[in-house]
Amino acid sequence: MDAHTAFDEGLAAFAAELRRLRIERGNRSYRDLALRAARTDTGIRLPVATQSDAFRGRRLLGFDTLMALVRILYSYDEYGQESAVPPHAAPELDPWRRRWRELAALQPTGAGRARIPAPEPVPVPVPAAAHEPEPEPTPPPHTAEQGAGGRSATAADAPFAPLHRLIGRTGGAVWSVAFSPDGRLLASADDDGIVQLWHTGTGVPLPRWIACTFPLAFTRGGVLLAVDDKDRSVVRQLVVSDLTPGGPSLSGGAAQIRAMTYDADRHLLATLDFDGLVRLWDLRSGRQAGPPLPDHAGHGIRTVAFTDDGRLLGAGSGGRVWDMFRERHRPGEPKPPLVDTPDVLALSPDGRMLAFGRTDGSAGLLGSRPGPGGELTLKGHRGAVHAMAFSPDGGLLASTCEDSRVRLWDTGTGRRVGPPLSLHSHAVNGLAFSPDGRLLATASDDRTVRLYERSGPARTVPLAERALAAALRAQYGVQLPAVSTEDGLVRLAFSPDGRILAGATSRGALVLRDPVTGRILAAQLDDASAGSRAMAFSPDGTVLATASAKRSVCLRDPLTGRPLREIPTDHDGAVHNLAFSPDGRLLATAGADTTVRLWHPVTGERTRFALRDHSGEVVGLAFSPGGLLAASGMDGKVALWAVPSHRLVREFTVSTGSVRAVAFSTTGDLLAVGGADGVVRLRNPATGAPVGALHTGNASAVNDLAFSPDGALLASADDAGTVLLWDRATGGLVGSPLTSHDGPVHGVAFSPDGSLLATAGTDGTLCRWIVGPL
Predict the structure, then answer these.
(1) What's the whole-model pTM score?
(2) Is the peptide bond before 135 cis (omega within 30 degrees of 0)?
(3) Which among 77, 178, 670 has a CA at the least distance from the CA of 430?
(4) How far apart are CA 600 and CA 564, in angstroms?
(5) For residue range 696-739, what is the model confidence (pLDDT) as tens digits?
(6) What domains are there in the chain, each with its CATH number?
(7) Euclidean distance between CA atoms 702 and 512, whole angstroms
(8) Distance from CA of residue 71 to its chain's centroid?
């Protein structure tokens, strides 16, 4: 084996070990890990691209970068909860140091020989909030600012390069800019009440102008929407070629219009006035689409935005976000970190991020999820923040303040991207990205508009990729080609590393598939001993347990499916289900004899007690992250047991029929129970109290349930052949029902990274759906 091959194989194995550690520590997303690192006082920085290279085995990270990543992974406990970041000398880091040195010794150099590269410098600890301190006093325009890592950021680092300087007709301060849908035209509005249009390719203005003012917007058909300069409660529709009326004027109130947003799919315009009222307009008829949406409890809505999936969101002065169509505060939306009211607000295109700025120069980003890690502080503004805007893909945030500079931020980390854009001589009032994200326009008090173009090689994003990204941002499942099996499928399970998708057929055959391609990984096992209608992977992925037709549990090699050990269960009847405890030390089996039994999978020994609380067959089984065991049966009852004390914590009856499925959320604070009446009931496992019910819309029994790894989604599968995705935060359905099965669906499972959902039907098809971000 040559040096290159040895290194490549070692790097792939090393990456697999990193992925396994990530799964064991809660399978956090790249963004979560970056945020976690930024919030510690260790000085660790983990860009998403660096993490991707490490977990995918694209390159060997430097020693200190690798150890920083491992330390952050170990800052989560085995239940995925945050704990202290281990110090450099922590003993659990020793194997990783050794493995890195072994691998570095194999790494080929330019001369074809291996050597150990010098470790990267240890990062200097800085306060968690101080991402990029800037030197004082305030430098004049064009002076380099301090960049990431303390070096001076230069023009060569800028993600956008100057393209055009646009000077308006009247010489008034410019307040607002907006791009046409194709990005070929730019509209600007100044404080003299003049709206002009410009060719973005040449920077040449169109010959006509009109007396209107901001805010500005374009329809999908290219009609310009602007506020009348004389009556600022009226929106005018203008044909861009000659600025003549392109539709009826929209007038419904007396207050001036503060903001507006357009939904191309439904031809809807939403306007917000200074009285806090939001009006919806059908642009095809020029009429209001229903009564105004009122201000919410006096919180002072400051901006509105249609998201990619058609929701209308309003952001208020208290930093809260409302779903305007539902007319209620969205559960889980965070508040700003300071009591002071934000003066500038911006919503990301997918509605998951809120940017805010204040007159004191403070600014931040808030995520849509509650708890720690949902907030990023943006340091560096020198003066009152004037404007903010997200790029179309949500990856960049542009902001500006009184110092005339435009700063760009990575929304995943809160770190500044490149040096500020500093071509204006006065404060910048307005910002806008072109629909394809290639151009950035800025409007300033210096009476000019600056147009910037993305630096570096341009990449044309295919329409299919953009459509797929839009669907996933809206949490719509996108189906991959279905895989057929000879018999109906009744169970599914992903291996912890996501490389294997196991299924059990109605005849008890075991099938192992590649979850990406659907190809067969091992020969189908359909002999009598394989008769498996229940299965589970051990938490470390080294064992696949199946319940056989001989009332025993077979521990198998997960790569081949071949038996490793057989455990007689002593059940007086079939074994319907099985589950590993979170630490992998216990295996629970549910039987037709109304009992649940616990086993030591390593030795095959049964614990002393059988859990008996059901009057019918036990069919549902699930462990919580904290080790609580839920068992459900044909008697409609759910029992919660404390393991390993074998103590019955509580029990409750939730259905007059069978309860075939139970599932705990990833944090263990919610228990979902699937009933025979088509209702998914939600319970607080700590108290047993009901906390909600999800109605599938039919009376078919719910056969299986699964929470996504991040806990945001719950999938249900029923006898009607329907798979539904539920938003845990709101209890509402996400997207359309997944209806590709011709018959009952008995199995549903999320991949460990949450990006794939697999479903198993009695029609013999294995369906895979992309449900997570790319």
Answers:
(1) 0.52
(2) no
(3) 178
(4) 15
(5) 888 788 999 999 988 888 999 999 899 999 988 778 888 788 88
(6) 3-106 (no CATH), 159-454 (2.130.10.10), 489-702 (2.130.10.10)
(7) 25
(8) 23
